[in-house]
Each structure stands twice: as structure tokens, then as C-alpha cells.
Amino acid sequence: MLLSLFSVEGNRILADKRINPNIRVIMHIHEYQAKELLRRYGVTVPDFAVVSDVEEAKRVVADLGTEKVVVKVMVHAGGRGKAGGVKIAENGEEAVLFAQEMLGMKIVNRQTGKEGVVAEKVMIAPLTDIDKQYYLSCAIDRERGCATLIASPEGGVEIEEVAEKDPDKILKIPVSLGGRLRSYQLFELAKFMGWKGDVAKQGMRTAQAMAKAFFDNDCSLLEINPLALTPEGNIVALDAKCSIDDNALFRHPKISSMYDPSQSPSREAEAEKHDLSYIALDGNIGCMVNGAGLAMATMDIISHFGGMPANFLDVGGGATAEKVAEGFKIIASDPNVKAILVNIFGGIMNCETVAEGIVAAGGAFVPLVLRMEGTGVEEGKQKLVAAGIDVVVADSMATAAEKVVACTKGN
Fold it and tell me: Which of 178, 201, 339, 361 is the most exposed place for a label (fewest CB within 10 A)?
């Protein structure tokens, strides 16, 4: 599925939404959790404290004394500084005031979507003096088909802008399986970044630790921006971002427990409770399917007939009627949904089970178009009729898509 993201219009819609950090195709963790992960691998991270109320903030500030501190909102989104979510306090009293203002702050930007995300925690850390800022990350390079270390001597800014305006400032190094960087690669990195002497040793050690952490924890992204050089000659991670492949969370129960539902749109958080693959989109046609490939094809064909999907919902191959019912309720609860398309291929999934789930959910208050093929299809249709569910039946994907788009236009 991931390799075909940009194939046609429906897929392109989903690909655009993958920019949003709240989508749980991958699991994001907070900055402080990413820093704790890096610290376990030997990366130098300045001291910090995370608070969730004003009284905690007062205690933390009292321990720090009167020195300058940085106060940052903990949300799964970039652009915190531009939104007022990162501030430097000149003294303890000001730090507490900033913490009070930031707790409960909603960040709304391109990454969060219209619903935004609310900060339930803030991080307080002593201000670090900086001589130079660098960028360092590990990510999956899909063109090369491998993990890649990405580095730049231009840190503290959006790396996309650096790559676009000055691509020579970006170094990409393939990482061997297991998170190993070879000596010559580390020397190449040090030379590119302008590191010498003890600073080079620290920088290379940090890069190797990051690559190892990336592989060990099945990350899809592990980023330090900025990686800072202090006046004392120390390389430290001042900010960190980490995303984990959802499919690997069973191997990492500790990381899985870090999932923060407050950082996801309400329907996506509800879907997570029921182990449903749900992604909110910007259209008005609700989609329920079984199988990611069928979901992508369904969105494509809806787009082909001039419609816009409101969501991506894959109930999976072995869903129960209860799981189908919860998924259907989530789709129907979206006020933007003007019609729903249920497109099921009954292989492992039994169409009768899907019908039972729709009946249990009480049907829909908007036009419902149904296309089912395969195991238990006739039994499923009969159950819907017996329950009095008002449904438009289609015998092909094209017909189903055409009918559901027509429903949204009042036809």
C-alpha cells in the first residue's frame, strides 16, 4: 500500500493526509519521550521536566532556581514556536506564568488539521547556550529502499526548505541493517558537518546511537533538530521527534503505552480503541471496506466519479459484527458525511457479519450504498432487508461509486 501512495487522485488525497502527525498509520510520541529514548542510547540530552499542572510547574521552577528556562507545549505537531507554544522565561515567576498559559493551549496548523491538538503537558528546561545548530535524522528512503541518515550543518530550520534552496547542504548516508554506520561513513559525516577533534567524536557517537535507536525501535522517523554545539564544546540534542511503525508496536509494549489519544482527532482516537484503521479526510462520502488495497481503490473510484471520500476505514479481514458496528457508528457520526459507501469483498470476511454490524449500529441517517461480493453475500443482503435498513444495492464498484456520488448531489 505504501509504495502506491501517489498513483492516482484518491491515493493522492490519502498521501496528503499522511503529513498530519495525528494520523495513526504511524505512532508519534512526544518530544520528551523521544528524548528519553535517545538518552537510553547514549545521546546527550539536557535536563528537562514535564508538568501537567501549575503546581507541578512551581515545584520544577523552584528546583531550577532563577536561571532562564525554556517552556514548550507537548503536542504532536510542528510549528509550536510560531503558534506561541515555545517561550523563553527570564525568571521562575515568568516560567510558571508561561506554563499556565500553555496548559490547555490548542495548536491549529497545517499538520494538525482544523480540529487542532490540545497541550495537556508542557516541558520546562534550563536554557542552553548555542554556538552552532545542526540537523540530524534517520528515516526510510523509499527510492533506495533502506534506512538513511540525513544530516545538515543548517539546523534549527525546516529541513525541507534547506533541501529545496540549498541541496548541497544535505548529506544522505545509507544505514546498514541493525543500525550500523561504518567508520568511513562517520568520517564523511564529520567532515561534511565541519566537526573536528572531540566535537567530531561526540557527533559521530550521536549519529551511531541514533541509527541504532532507529532500528531497534522500528522507527519510521527519528529526528534531532536542532542538534546543538554549546560554547563548552558539547554536542546536545535540544529537540527530538520520533514516529514508530504501527505494525511493529507488538514488539515494543513500552512505546505502545506512550500512545496519547488526546493528540488524535476524536473519531480517530475512538477508532483506535476498537483496533480499526481509520483516517479522517476532507470529503463527504463515508467509506467502509475490508482491506487496505480495496480502500485505496474505493477512494480512487469515488474521486473518478467526482466525489470526495470523508474517511479511510478498513475493518480488516477478520472483523466481528461488533467491530463493524463501531466502525459504522464512527463514520455516521461525522457531520460532514452526506452518504456512506460500504464496499466489501467476502473472502476471509463474511458479508453476513458486515450486515449484522450495520444492523447493530442502527443503519445510517444518510443515504447508504452497498456493494458486497463473496462469502455470505446473499445472507447479508437478506439480513439488511429483514432489519428494515434503507440501502441502495449496487452490483459493481463503478455503479456503487456512481450512485453514492449522486446521493451527495441530491440525486
Answer: 178
